[in-house]
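Appendix B. One record, verbatim.
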Amino acid sequence: MHRLTLTRWSGLVVLLLFTAGFGVTLGTLAPSANALSVNCHAKPHAGVNFANCNLTGRDLKNANLENADLMNANLKGADLQGAQMSGAHLNNVSSGSVVGLPILPAGWDLINGYLVGPGANLNGAQLSGADLYGTNIVNARISGADLSFVTSGLVKGNPTLPAGWKLVNGYLIGPDANLAFASLHGANLSHTDLAGAKFFSANLAKANLSHADLSGADLSSANLSSADLSGTNLFNANLTSANLSGANLSGAGLSQTNTTNVITNGSTKCPGAEGGPCHTW
């Protein structure tokens, strides 16, 4: 009886030692080593874990943040001059008023003091007049941001944008957007708020702009041939030298619109629904 009990206990001890050797734990799992290593006041070093840390105003000049975990971190006002951040994890990072010229991971840029890249948290960002050409904003959150006068093109992603904005053909489309020389041939911009947008010399041939708001927009020298502008609000818009050959302007509102040197032809459908060329507006 005693010998049998001793044998069972010996077997249990061996089993526990065996499982411990392979890192197997019984019962409640312990926190991961990664989670335990978070130290928001740690000295920066390669692979440092600053996830979820508030690093507002932190002096990180020339810091080695290569492969650092900065997920959900707040870097507003941080000094990143010369910081080495290649390979860093920046998903959902918040920023603004960031200074310096850091070395960033592929797909990331520092624009107007904001870290812009895939998964960036740019909610409420002040990006007025920013040049976002060629940026990667896959899964970025940009709701509530000021995008007035922003320049774009070749933008990649499926970001969450402010109300009234959309990403079309790689361009950020919305009120007061700077879309000069944009290539928007055949784009569907129906019912879109484009008030005050700049379309100077843009290619909008065959675009659907029906019932869009283009009040105050600059469409000078734009190619609007065969475009659908039916029911469009063109109040106070600038159509100087625009090409409206074959365009449909039936029902469009052109009060105070500048139509100097506008190009129309026999296929143009004028605002009063009569056929072109349009001599009176």
